[in-house]
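Re: your question from the hallway

Yes, I did run it. Sequences:
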Amino acid sequence: MSIIIKGGSILTPRGLVKGDLYIEGNRIVGIGKTTRSKPDAVIDGNGKIAIPGLVNAHTHVSMSIFRGYGEDLPLDRWLKEKIWPIEAKQKPKDVEASALLSFCEMIRSGTTCFADTSLFDASIIIGAARKAGMRGIVARSFLDQGDAEKTKRAMAELGSQSSLMHGKDNPVRLSAAVHAPYTCSEEILLRAKSVADTLGIKLQIHASETRKEIFDVLKERGKYPIEYLDSIGFLGPDCIIAHAGWLTKREIGILGKSGSSIASCPVSNLKLATGGISQITELDRSGANVALGTDSAASNNCLDMFQTMKIASLLQKHHYWKADALPVDKAFAFATANGARALGFDAGALEIGRLADIVLLDQAPNMAPIHDILSNLVYSAGPQNVSDVIIDGKVVMREREIMTLDEPDIIRKAESAAQDIKSR
Amino acid sequence: MSIIIKGGSILTPRGLVKGDLYIEGNRIVGIGKTTRSKPDAVIDGNGKIAIPGLVNAHTHVSMSIFRGYGEDLPLDRWLKEKIWPIEAKQKPKDVEASALLSFCEMIRSGTTCFADTSLFDASIIIGAARKAGMRGIVARSFLDQGDAEKTKRAMAELGSQSSLMHGKDNPVRLSAAVHAPYTCSEEILLRAKSVADTLGIKLQIHASETRKEIFDVLKERGKYPIEYLDSIGFLGPDCIIAHAGWLTKREIGILGKSGSSIASCPVSNLKLATGGISQITELDRSGANVALGTDSAASNNCLDMFQTMKIASLLQKHHYWKADALPVDKAFAFATANGARALGFDAGALEIGRLADIVLLDQAPNMAPIHDILSNLVYSAGPQNVSDVIIDGKVVMREREIMTLDEPDIIRKAESAAQDIKSR
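Structure:
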């Protein structure tokens, strides 16, 4: 399959290029040239801007059906009183309904790649993602919270997932995950790390999200969360730390040195009033790979990465009282190239040879004029501008119509799953 | 002219109602009933939710063509080095082009009513707003900055604007405005207040936006900005204070007692790194009328009131470390009913007898499921959900097509105005 996007503007790492964008198979093979052998499909790019698809480096697609459920509570009460009890009632078909709803929202808002963790069998979300045509990494997340029986089960199950491994070229891949240093024994943290190393897959964890967690980990393990994870050898280039909103300078240095990825989730942190603003500019300078995530639609309450990119930028300006704290090229890279790197995909930039994950934005009043296209993308753009989405060389949305999924049916099923669970 | 929106959901102050929404002339005359005499137009509301149009209580539509120009500078340098020099080169046709671009963006993002100030003759923006079919108040804003010649001119011009007054039923109305306590002499502040009182129009001013301003006003006038405005009798129910991001507890009390309106602009404050978070929950409790604004697209960089409503809410949670700092019904009222009240219009809620400013949202994955419609509106909704807009009983957008303006032409003209000015 080959596709030409004809006559639009293409955002490359070296700026806007006018011309054609060529895709063969799942890779970008040409940018800006005007002739080429006959493609299988032509998309009129006139008046459109092609950008790399956005990467959501931390989310929980199983939770989208809890959007707006259990509002206005701090993290610990929100989890214990609302989310964990309702998740316990969630069945595999509810997880699938929620995942498919999430993928519709992601596609419509220009997200082509995601990292997910959930309490459920990873095969459900992997299957839904394949149906949608998304790219991503998916993990079942483990926690034992001092429960020996749970530890035993988690130890066994962590190792048994290799059946879900697929070829390296598969756009949806298995990942390993453990919930957080304050909910996991050292035993299962190390087991997850070793499974990830053995299978060569990514390792996801939440850390340093709330102040309470910092105090709890300090008390129990005598170290700050990141120091602790470092001390047990958990960190490294395949590790993705979600949140990292309360870090000491020393921990920023540790994360940089280890080459870990950060998935900062500013909207969720604000909404749950964690009080922490992830120091992503300092993390970036320290050598960590900074990416961005929405967290779940239950604590955001959407999966809009344009919004997350803007709010992440605004919070850096606010936090440091510096209007130039985070340049727009950095912010855009956090939401694209760095995200792809964190998740282990050769995507996130429109360059020859890269994976073809491409979003087309059409002309709209909120994107005009163009004094600085990156500024418009980081501060002005939104889901309303997304017209077409290509993932892994396949057209998943064409002129605002999702091609891979029956969207009205998915919305109906998600709505009824949400109501069903509450009545169980 | 009468319109029926048939068979949708209607967000009233008492919750969602299923049924029809009737409009006669420019007012809502029926909600939820199923029969009615033959209307002039029927809109199929099936699967849609009708909400009151959002109110942008502080913006500068003349500046939208500077979106993305002069990025990443703090307020004082941004104004002095970038904005004021380029505004000096702006001609009336550029102002009109910028205003029309802004109205396209507002309509597409569900904003039906706005408050504007600019350095230009108010008739230009009033004319453009009428063409677009918007509702709003428009003011030429004065400042003299210790320049006696400017003071003299401003004193004369402030009084001469009454020619722009129109009947009370006109959806676009003249307002009075002065820039800020730190840029205006007491003479013109009082003159603007007296003109507003005489004409019975609203009085707009920026105040307490940056810390530098606080220090400057304290030094020069011996009082904090709001204390100072109070001491000269400037405040009152017809006064709209934009920003109010750095207030003492005493000033919050003063604003409440005076019954003034606040137009908090959280996105602009973050973007210009003012460091202040307007204490809108405390202001609301004190009795002030809290409304929200985007500020200009040059410092936001969009005019999306859904985003402003969400970020305003998130910042209250963050500022007070309280996940329930600002309930969603309050946040929604700030962006609708309170905004309408600030601007002096009997709009902002879907109730019989109110002005018919109505936005229809269609079904979309980011708005499902509905556990709590207000939560979805405040935290999940965006311009992508807006399908139809009615202002003052007239359809200005139908199924995403703006009926009152030639949108592609407006985008082209705004783009060329933006490029022309830079080359002058």
